[in-house]
């Protein structure tokens, strides 16, 4: 009887100790580092209140840098990418207790049309990751599901998680999350629940 009990305990421990992924290891290391990264882009940062966010965007709008977009992510920016192609970026943050903590962005080539090999989302994701590396530095790595059917490029600096993935045939989505506020699994579940 004692042997069976010990066998069940050993089996339970073995099953609960699945190996950690590169993502899990990097996330643990970065969160444990205590490093705080709040900068995003264009003077926008984690923790800013709605009023400050709108004021910052208004100043950029007056200077012709940002405009109102016709996208559900309402603010539009035209960043310069390494390939020289024309790219549009739409963004609009989420706030928790009046503090910015999540920044979804969507990128697309302005000259995209079906069948044009110059403007595929495979080329777009390279342009987007290059742009993000110019803003946040190197260190992106690929994560994928067990079957390698879904993948994303990820970078974690302290509390700042950046995830880049193909949303559809012509759009690359970027999500920047403050891990001090929520985990990406909470944000993913929220999107799934809304579908």
Short structural description:
It comes from Aquiflexum gelatinilyticum. The chain has 195 residues and is α+β, with helices and mostly antiparallel strands.
Verbal overview:
This protein has 195 residues and is α+β, with helices and mostly antiparallel strands. The protein has one domain. It is 34% helix and 30% strand. It contains 5 helices and 11 strands. Strands 3, 4, 5, 6, 7, 8, 9, 10 and 11 form a 9-stranded antiparallel sheet that branches. A two-stranded antiparallel sheet has the order 1-2. β8 and β9 (151-157) form a beta hairpin. The radius of gyration is 20 Å and the shape is globular. Mean pLDDT is 87; it is low at 4-8.
Q: How are the SSEs ordered, and which strands pair?
A:
Layout: H1 2-16, H2 22-33, E1 39-41, E2 44-45, H3 50-62, E3 66-68, E4 75-77, E5 87-91, E6 94-96, E7 99-109, H4 121-136, E8 141-144, E9 151-157, E10 160-168, E11 171-178, H5 184-194
Antiparallel strand pairs: 1-2, 3-4, 4-5, 5-7, 6-7, 7-11, 8-9, 9-10, 10-11
Main sheet specs: 9 strands, antiparallel
Give me the Rg, rounded: 20 Å
SS class: alpha+beta
Global outline: globular
- Domain count: the total is 1
Percent strand equals 25-35%
Q: What is the percent of helical residues?
A: 25-40%
Q: Could you tell me how far the N terminus lies from the C terminus, measured between alpha carbons in angstroms?
A: 50 Å
Question: Number of DSSP helices?
Answer: 5
- Mean pLDDT across all residues, rounded? 87
Unreliable sequence segments: 4-8
Number of strands: 11
> What's the helix-strand series?
HHEEHEEEEEHEEEEH
